[in-house]
Amino acid sequence: MMQEDNNAATIKQLAQELGFEFCGIAEAGFLEEEAPRLEAWLNRNYHGEMAYMANHFDKRLDPTKLVDGAKTVVSLVYNYYPEKKLPEGDKELKIAKYAYGKDYHFVIKDKLKSFLNRLKEEIGDVGGRAFVDSAPVMERQWAQKSGLGWQGKNSLLLNRKMGSFFFLAELIIDLKATPDNPVTKDYCGSCTRCIDACPTDAIVQPGVVDGSRCISYFTIELKEELPTSMKGKFENWMFGCDICQDVCPWNRFSQPHQEPEFLPHPELEEMTRRDWEEITQETFSKVFQKSAVKRTKLKGLQRNIRFLNDDNT
Question: Per the database record, which ranges form the 4Fe-4S ferredoxin-type domain (predicted)?
Answer without folding.
Answer: 179-208
